[in-house]
From TrEMBL, chains A, B:
Keywords noted in UniProt: Isomerase
Organism: Actinocrinis puniceicyclus
Domain Xylose isomerase-like TIM barrel: 29-275
Native organism taxonomy: Bacteria, Bacillati, Actinomycetota, Actinomycetes, Catenulisporales
UniProt cross-references to Pfam families, sorted A to Z: AP_endonuc_2 (PF01261)
Protein name as catalogued: Sugar phosphate isomerase/epimerase
GO molecular function: isomerase activity
């Protein structure tokens, strides 16, 4: 279907082709020549973990990230322990799929709660408990700040600056002394995921991207379209459909030292209702139009 | 209807009783014993400016703020000039209604634009052009940061920190040298409006409220309920209905030195469909339950 050669840094995030299983999405990327894929755990489970890992091996498509760990906030200790356990499994799945990036969507307020500071402490505690095992498995944790409109129900981590504060709290400051020893970027256990849809509005965005530097473990793109639909989750558009200057943010991210994939992640009923191969073709076209050098 | 005495610092923002004209809202406050009212210009126009000002005089209800000036962003010079003109009229209306606070909702991106930095410059320019006339009329401009989900279409001013940066840019830093002379809090021409609904998620909220100090010219309250409805504008609830610890924010605002009204502003179809007197009764009840000392 696509006559264009796919860009070398382009990745599909499999949430964009939600009706596909992981196996179908990997095969779709292989057909389209898209070299990377960010996978969601539910889609991996639908295809089977072993089979998905095999398919990654045979197609040569690389897994840019696994979505998602996190959701550390819970009303009681039992719930918080279950979340930690689930994150340890996610770390193992990431390792098995050959990616060193596990994206964390950290969780909103527990039902009925108004204790935002308390929920944020649960998140910091949760990441600190998962990080040592992740490091041991060679998987890095990418804290993803979500748009503040998801603060109540999906992520109390709302800004890139806050995500970096958390990463530094758990992982130590880069090049700073940790147990008396310096720490190089290659040793990073905890970093951040930057998604244009979630961070584009932030007046501190470019300064925080510069601060993030090598802590940027994943870069996701999607556009902001208005009006927002109900629940606000599915209001995204292809790059170029909306109000975000995606190129400007991509340039900042590159300038900060990020050299990894650009993952296209779009939650949109309209996109989901489009045949997957057609969506992948649009990804390549839009990348060429808005993001290729 | 209300057996409770209304708290001395409570104000209705007339958007909460959207089906009422300004005159009806003022009369409703007088009946309920609510001492303050934040008025919207469209409702004032519906009742007539003169008649509204007379009613304020005769009922003794005080105008806590006028909503709203702003919307400085426009695709062309003509549009931006028209916005300035409209803001000068809003300043005059505020003065005539006996309030010294004009709330600014600064405007989103012009249609089709992705130039966020450019839109933010338009806002700074617009406020700078309105401020001298406002100062002359004894009206202070309260920059209201809106929730970042409104960045594209209603306000490129998204955080309290950003609003304060803007206020300081236009108005000079408090106690700092302006033209060689110090500047006291009483001389403030530009400040901010803090609305719990818009700022509650901000990890820097309490430090920015402390920084704001006497620049807080208005304090509005409303609660965050989930799920968000389409367009996200009408998803608010009465204090206590949702996820915001309104009391904690009110305490911060008081600690920063704010002594003015607490205006209840709720955009909600459910609240709008409720008879106004009943809504005012709920305002008083919730204030007593969640905000009274």
């Amino acid at each position: 279907m696509s006559a264009l050669p796919a860009p070398a840094r382009l990745a599909l995030n499999s949430a964009t082709t939600k009706r596909w299983s992981a196996a179908e999405a990997i095969e779709g990327c292989a057909r389209a020549g898209i070299p990377g894929i960010g996978l969601w755990r539910d889609q991996v489970a639908a295809s089977g973990l072993e089979r998905t890992a095999d398919l990654i091996w045979t197609t040569g498509v690389k897994v840019s990230s696994l979505c998602r760990g996190g959701f550390f906030t819970a009303a009681d200790e039992r719930g918080r322990r279950a979340a930690i356990e689930d994150n340890l499994r996610a770390v193992e799945e990431a390792a098995q799929l050959g990616t060193d990036v596990l994206i964390l969507v950290c969780g909103g307020l527990p039902p009925g709660s108004r204790d935002l500071a308390g929920a944020r402490r649960m998140v910091a505690d949760g990441i600190a408990q998962v990080a040592p095992y992740a490091e041991q498995q060679g998987v890095r944790l990418a804290i993803e700040p979500l748009h503040p409109m998801f603060c109540a129900d999906r992520s109390v981590v709302c800004t890139l600056g806050q995500a970096l504060d958390l990463a530094e709290e758990v992982d130590g400051v880069l090049d700073g002394p940790i147990d008396g020893a310096g720490r190089a970027a290659g040793d990073l256990a905890v970093g951040v995921a930057v998604d244009t849809y979630h961070v584009w509005w932030d007046p501190q965005l470019h300064e925080q991207i510069a601060r993030a530097g090598r802590r940027i473990l994943a870069f996701q793109v999607g556009d902001w379209t208005v009006p927002l639909p109900a629940d606000a989750l599915l209001g995204r558009g292809h790059v170029g459909d909306g109000h975000i200057d995606v190129r400007e943010i991509a340039d900042s991210v590159a300038k900060a030292g990020y050299t990894g994939y650009t993952e296209v992640e779009i939650f949109s009923q309209r996109v989901w209702d489009t045949p997957g191969d057609e969506t992948l073709h649009t990804l390549i076209e839009r990348y060429e139009e808005y993001l290729a050098s």
